[in-house]
Specification:
Length: 94
């Protein structure tokens, strides 16, 4: 409701700023947890994980799969990773 019509939500008495802050904090918490778990599972972290191009890659994954769905970004991530693996074999350094 807030996303579609914020002024209406305010006029209905919802604390819009509070809900927006809650959404931001939850999003940041999940992203931080995912990054921490990736480091624990892989047992290393590289500088490419924090390079600006990584955020562009995540946006590409979301756009490929569909932004408005839950499974869309997961599908987009699968497509991007599959393409990276396929092209790395064909284009490689050798």
């Amino acid at each position: 409701m807030i996303r579609e019509n914020e002024p209406r939500a305010v006029s209905l008495g919802y604390e819009v700023d509070r809900y927006k802050l809650l959404a931001f904090v939850l999003s940041a918490s999940l992203a931080g947890t995912a990054g921490g778990l990736k480091t624990v599972v892989m047992k290393f972290a590289t500088l490419s994980d924090v390079h600006w191009s990584m955020s562009g890659e995540v946006i590409l994954m979301s756009l490929l799969g569909g932004v408005g769905t839950f499974m869309g970004p997961i599908l987009g991530a699968g497509i991007v990773i599959a393409l990276q693996n396929m092209l790395a074999d064909k284009v490689g350094a050798g």
